[in-house]
Amino acid sequence: MECSKAHNDIIFYIEGSLDKKRSSAIKQHLDTCKNCSDFADKLRESLDVIEAEKKVSEDNDFADRVMAEVFVQGKKQNTYSLEILRYAAAAAIIIFGVFTGINIARLASGYDQEELTEMTDETYYLNDMYQEPIESFFLINYEDNE
Amino acid sequence: MNFDNYNNEKVLVNALIAGDESAYRHVIKIYREPVIRLCRGFTGSFEDAEDLAQDIFIEVFRSVGKFRSRSSMSTWIYRIAVNKSLNFIRDNKKRNYDEHGKHDEEVIKGSDNYSADSPLVQKEHAAALHNALEKLPEAQRTVFILSKYEDLKYSEIADIMRTSISSVESLLFRAKRNLQDKLRDYYEKNLS
Q1: Which residues contact B46 (CB under 8 A, 6 or more apart)?
Q2: What band does A60 get if pLDDT is binned at 50, 70 and 90?
Q3: What pLDDT, on a 0 to 100 scale, did the predictor assign at position B107?
Q4: Does residue B180 contact residue A11 with C-beta atoms inside 8 Å?
């Protein structure tokens, strides 16, 4: 048997999954070829590492560490949700305040919405005062005082 | 609630969803060893395996609400463990590349969890094995680790990987052949 052919099956020979005929052919080759026999020994030792690594030592604190993480993360998530709610409430109050302010300003200016809708496009664009309701408000007040 | 004698997985799942601490501890008690073993197969380091296992259980508890009982709980936990392990390795590879400007094939792995008085040969073989495993394609590596570290049946591996039993057989065969070749290369470079 050539070394290259034997090399293909050495791992299967080591784990004992070859049929009898193939297994004895590999064994015969290993008995006569030092190179392949050395390779088989090294391969066996490397694969033995798996058996050694399968042993997991006891760790009584592992569950406690996971529990601590789980509950800390849960608390963090709750705190995070509360933070978001707080910011949402603040934003809602600000938006409410801005709209209320705009409406109060409109009422105070005596600005007639109907009058504006009755206007034609031409009169609207030719009359700057309609585009400047705040100035108009002051002018009206000034006239009233006179 | 005592889950030691429970037979119905649904009861356990419901308790987990409800945030029952004793249910959490029961799951850890059953699955800690297999999860750490699996992670050790992927990472080659006991410390990394423990840290990774911790993250896996946190993920299991966080996403238990999504568990639909279409597969067994062990299959579902193994799936999370495999995904997390593969992500861990991808991140590590990227980090090693960024930090060292080279792929981690040049970084000695798998020997950090052997004590100083472990025989040098054992450390070298651990390094050889994990370097070779790391070079396998992900599917071959996953099948090999599930089979050799966890001793799972082909049908169980097929369930975890959502593939057929014949695919698992084929992947495992190729994994062993490839592993053998990678180890031979490693011995020629490092242990000759």
Answers
A1: B36, B40, B113
A2: confident
A3: 44
A4: yes
Pair B85, B68: CB distance under 8 Å: no
* B18-B23-B27 Cα angle (round to 5): 130
Which residues in chain B are closer than 8 Å to A67, comparing Cβ atoms? 21, 24-25
- For residues B82 and B41, the answer to whether their CB atoms sit within 8 Å is no
B54 → closest Cβ in A15, A43, A69: A69
What is the phi/psi pair of residue B8, to 5°? -100, 115
pLDDT over 90 (residue A1): no
ipTM: 0.81
Min Cα distance A88 → chain B (Å) is 26
State the Rg of chain B over Cα: 18
- Residues from chain A contacting residue B37 (CB–CB below 8 Å): 53-54, 56
Question: Number of A:B CB contacts under 8 A?
Answer: 82
The one-letter code for the residue type at B67 is F
Q: Given the structure tokens 């946190």, which residue do they identify? A: B58
Cβ of A42 within 8 Å of Cβ of B183? The answer is: yes
Split at pLDDT 50, 70, 90, the class of A59 is confident
Phi, psi of B135 (to 5 degrees): -90, -5
Show pLDDT as tens, one digit a residue, over chain B (192 residues): 555 545 678 888 888 888 888 999 999 999 999 999 999 999 998 899 999 999 999 999 999 888 887 888 999 999 999 999 999 998 887 766 566 554 444 444 555 555 555 565 778 899 999 999 999 999 999 999 999 999 999 999 999 999 999 999 999 999 999 999 999 999 888 766
Is the CB of A104 inside 8 Å of chain B's CB atoms?
Answer: no
**pTM (two decimals):** 0.73
How far off is chain B from A96, nearest CA to CA, in Å? 38
Candidate from A11, A42, A54 with C-beta closest to B191: A42
